Amino acid sequence: MNEKTVKLKIKRRDKPDTKTYWQEFVIPYQERLNVIACLQAIQADPTTHLGETVNPVTWDCNCLEETCGSCTMLINGKVRQACTALIDSLEQPVVLEPMSKFPVIRDLQVDRSRMFENLKKVKAWVEIDGTHDIGEGPVMSDQVRAQRYALSECMSCGCCLEACPQFSLTNNFMGASTFSQVRLFNLHPSGSMLQEERLDAVMGEGGITDCGNAQVCVEVCPKSIPLTESIADIGRQTTLQTLKNIFMK
Amino acid sequence: MPKRKKKIIVIGGGLTGLSLAMKICERNAEVVIVSYQSLKRSHSVCAQGGINAAIDARNEGDSPENHFYDTIKGGDFLAHQPPVRDMCHQAPEIIHLLDRMGVAFNRTGEGHLEFRRFGGTLYSRTAFAGATTGQQLVYALDEQVRRFQHDGAVETLEWHEYLGAVIDTQGVCRGAVLQDLRTNTVFTLAGDAVVLATGGPGQVYVRSTNSTVNTGAAATMAYLQGAKYGNGEFIQIHPTAIPGPDKLRLMSESARGEGGRLWVPRKAGDARAPKLIPDSERNYFLEDKFPLFGNLVPRDVASREIHDIVYNQNLGIAGEPMVYLDLTHKSSQFLEDRLGGIIDIYKKFTGDDPKDVPMKIFPAVHYSMGGLWTDYEADGNGMIEHGSPRNQATSIPGLYAGGEADYQYHGANRLGANSLLSCIYTGLMMCRGIFTYIDNQDKSVDDIPSTTFGDARNYWEGRLKEIKAMKGNENPYQLHKELGDIMMGNVLIVRDNKKLEKTIQKIDDIKIRFKDVKCVDTSDWANPAPSFINQLYCMIELSRVIAKSAIMRDEFRGAHYKPEFDLKQPSDFDPHEYINYLEKKNYGEVPENTFPKGHLDYMKQFEANNQNWLKSTIAEYKNDKPEISYEPVDTSIVTPRPRKYD
Fold it and tell me: Which residues in chain B have Cβ-Cβ distances shorter than 8 Å to A15?
């Protein structure tokens, strides 16, 4: 046996309300292996480094090219997607843990539905009149398009929330990804018609004023979305909105 | 016709499912979206390059009719023509709708939609949002559905798996059997109609450009329950993907649409760095062979050429099965703006920046033109009667299919940027017909005895229990890999009957070994193993359909290439000669000297081959086997003729 191997240490949990435990696995090395391929190797031979046959590790994944956002987890303590985590660039043992700011379902799977609920709260959509044919969309400069595109690449992976010191399992802070979506839709000519409702939604509890300005969100975003710019911009927009609320209502 | 609101169960949260759900909500009916995962994460997000619509923004003289012709020709005339024509005519409306929803489509200097070139056409017809168009479209539709969710108009069952249809004693689909993927409980849901918007089956090959959910299990289950499956042998191999141990990651056709060039060193085994190889020592094989379409020949053509360069001419980069996809002549700003998404993917997985060094790529399994057989009703003017209950109906009444899960828009080869279109088009279009279907029912689902539902649930509870009790020696994930290797070996770009015979035997072996599978996880919470084993069973059955359909079709059409049956089109042939020939034939025997030497012979062979094989393959599950029959193709609008791209 010459073979190079990969060592993995994985934090496991059978059910949401049971205790966590650790298991270690050793799998054969291959070139260009990523963390997903390691987890797949464990599925095909679910044996720990002690030779014990166990249930295969469960995790979420889908696209395997960092576009769907599913496979987010903590890899060597850092939140990121498992598909783009290449073994050649990771220290071993590779330590895998589920995200800590979302309820664990099983092993590396977590429930991120809170992110989608927040998108509802801020009405992250353009309120179109209907799907029938009523002609072209609004004319828009390519500069504004480029600005919107950068924001619309958010795949709701949750990295920014995991890294955020303000966002926790128990509070209701909305977090950077939500604020950035408010900016995205306020930038659209027809989307901006709901601007006030969106701003009101982020001015309440768990809203923009709870942001501690730690700026780690932008560092961990796999899509390099300018999250701190979004936070600053929404901060400005809400300030104006506050003034408007005072004088206009 | 029920007095309450209509209730439609939509399986799948990709482009088709979301488009349809939105329409249903708008028409004030109830919809339940069932998704294997969170809605935003469906495989549709992987589409990169764009979506076609002949808006003719660049004043090139494009039209929906041109789009229709290119699509039909791209599909080697195997698609029924009225549905394709209707789709192409609806495309501009669909793009404007998506634009109104706020999709960040790239724009022109005046702020209108920008379009780019794509394969199989000479027009700039592809609207795009950087190189993540699929993702951007899913998000826009997801946002609209979330809006209806917010208003309480739509129910979503995320983390639920579709196991099968509930079929009553009359053979009508009355609902769906679902499994909650967290609690692992099985239950039934009654509905007036069920729609499978469940995508393609790339996982049958294991390594492909597809996502891990793309097992094709839902469509296969419909086939196992009696639905017809059409054109299974037509699997698209995309010419440009990054080879990898776990997935073959797509490098969009838009790279070539924006000027990317395919080449290999002229000298076999030349191991110099690509930048050190001067232009005169590079073989731009597509540009040389196809001066008119160049790097933008359709995918089936490009993949065959790459295969030929690598395996027949042994000209792969440094002797490896790879060729260059070169963008380095384009400015960095241009590439970031229009192709940023795929450049990032390439960088993250290979460490190289395509802005500086040419990408190394190879073809990969990408899309299934085949899928569940679905019906349509033409309106007599070569378009579709949108209110017809036949549209997108499978052969099981009450069960509908759309998007990649159906078989009817792409013929023998899909053109790039037509998949997003067919997904959204079918989703939007089928709504009215489904409503008519429900209105026309004598007996509603409310009249169906509860035992029909109870029996379906019991069957699936029993089936999963049976799977959980499997204690054999085969690891299901390992067996899946072996199935993929078999399919990759022989049901790919080049097909050969002798090899296909062996493939079928090998699949049968896998089917036998399946009985000896071990359920590697028997826990009762969020346990994916029994569900995967059931999907594996479906993948084995679907691979039998694909392989059998392939061995039986003795011709070369689109993505189905059997060199043995290549009619070898003369290099100086002009497809118009064939139309000419057909006209002349009406007036009696055509003299040999009417056409250049050898052409008449070729045309006669082409005509005879079409008589034999211009048919849809239909697979039906009978006696534990796929039984193959053929149906005529509706070619009422344009005359099928030889394809040519040079």
Answer: 525-526
Across B522-533, average pLDDT: 98
Taking only the tens place, the pLDDT of each residue in B195-240 is: 999 999 999 999 999 999 999 999 999 999 999 999 999 999 999 9
- DSSP class of B358: P
Contacts with A69 from chain B: Cβ below 8 Å: 40-41
A27: nearest Cα among A11, A40, A12:
A40
How many folded domains does chain A comprise?
2
At A192, list the tokens: 């901006």
- Residue B1 has a pLDDT of 58
The yes-or-no verdict on residue A208 having pLDDT over 50 is yes
Its CATH class, for the domain covering B241-365, is alpha beta
Domain residues for A93? 5-110
Residue A177 vs residues A99, A231, B342, B358: alpha-carbon distances, Å: 16, 9, 23, 35
For residue A101, being part of any structural domain is answered with yes
Q: What is the CATH number of the domain that holds A57?
A: 3.10.20.30
* Of B589 and B340, more confident: B340
Residue B299 designated active-site: yes
- The residue ranges of every structural domain in chain B are 241-365
Cross-chain residue pair A133–B477, CB shorter than 8 Å: no
pLDDT reported for residue B2:
60
CB B349 within 8 A of CB A84: yes
Q: Are residue A69 and residue A97 in the same domain, yes or no?
A: yes
Residue A247 banded pLDDT, cuts 50, 70, 90: confident
Same domain, yes or no: A48 and A100: yes
Interface A-B: count of C-beta contacts within 8 A: 188
A151 and A90 in a common domain: no
DSSP annotation string for B410-457 = STTSPPTT-HHHHHHHHHHHHHHHHHHHHHH-SS-GGGS-HHHHHHHH
ipTM score for this prediction:
0.97
Considering only CB atoms, B132 lies closest to which of A45, A86, A153, namely: A153
Task: Please indicate, yes or no, whether the overall pTM of this predicted structure exceeds 0.95.
Answer: yes
Q: Quick one: A179 and A231 in the same domain? A: yes
